[in-house]
Amino acid sequence: MRPTTALLSRSVWKGPHIVPLPIVRSKAGERVPPIKTQARSATILPNFVGLIFQVHNGKIYNDVRITEDMVGHKLGEFSAYVIPNRASRQLADEMASTRKRFAYKQTKNK
Predict the structure, then answer these.
(1) Of the residues 2, 13, 36, 103, which has the maximum number of CB atoms within 10 A of its CB?
(2) What's the whole-model pTM score?
């Protein structure tokens, strides 16, 4: 396989990081089961388009449907392992709105 510009996130002489995954093509009207993998660093190849992967995020497997825009990226980019905490963001917004600006006051020297 010759490296293309979409797959060149590593040096040319190393080539893309490819993990051998069991790719099963479907026949007409047949549904293919998702491919479970923990290889978050695997590069998405053009022959993965249309397949569904279950990528492990450290706790569960997230479903990732591969599209043409994803070719050349890593599988782990589409399976977030940190969920943003909405409560802490709301707390930060409240703190910012109630924060008072410091004002210097003139004091008398004794």
Answers:
(1) 36
(2) 0.62
